[in-house]
């Protein structure tokens, strides 16, 4: 049996580590590393969970994952279907914020960039209007080597520090003290939910997966996600519903309701609006008008 690691080591051969990869899918387990991660999803789609943040990711998205922030880029089911070969294309940049602060960022001219780096604990999503400029700089980093790569990287950090409307990925950094054992347990819980969300999952069932009593599970899950089990499961379902609506491959909203694990259309509509701020029909119309 393959051992699932929660803390993933990153090579420390240089100040920054750049990885450009084309793979069948992202690493499918919740994990963390002590480095900050800048992630450009060149091609791919699925659900990103980072701390207590959950949202669909799509091609072109750029994220900053905080140091030691547990996260997973969980690709859509189609990426795991051998009959429908797909791939993701990603560019990942890793750096140790403490090492950087003690060296390059210790210069007085780097004060604003240093302040930004110290504030990325909970991660950020880059707004759409800022993506093109940042993608261009990341492309520079990929193609440069040694000192020119570091110079382009400082340029990237400066761009981040001056970008407005960065969207935080989490509302709390308390989960960052999570232990290795707890991280593996949370991954087991998450994997079970995203695999079985299309059917009813009882509290007793998921508690057994976590090897906890129902009461202890509720406290444990709330502590590590800042969400109830039901609200988290509903978010997984609504994210899948959004994907189906955007694909246009459905006959009615009631079909989507039952495909994503909801028992009643009324409940589906209520949860959809609470999660997205729109009804399913408004959500569909909004993307048609773009």
TrEMBL record:
Domain HTH araC/xylS-type: 187-286
Keyword Transcription regulation on entry: yes
Keywords assigned: DNA-binding, Transcription, Transcription regulation
InterPro entries reported for this sequence: Homeodomain-like_sf (IPR009057), HTH_AraC (IPR018060), HTH_AraC-typ_CS (IPR018062), RmlC-like_jellyroll (IPR014710), RmlC_Cupin_sf (IPR011051)
Superkingdom classification of source: Bacteria
Keyword DNA-binding: yes
Name under which the protein is recorded: AraC family transcriptional regulator
Naturally occurring in which organism (per UniProt): Dyadobacter endophyticus
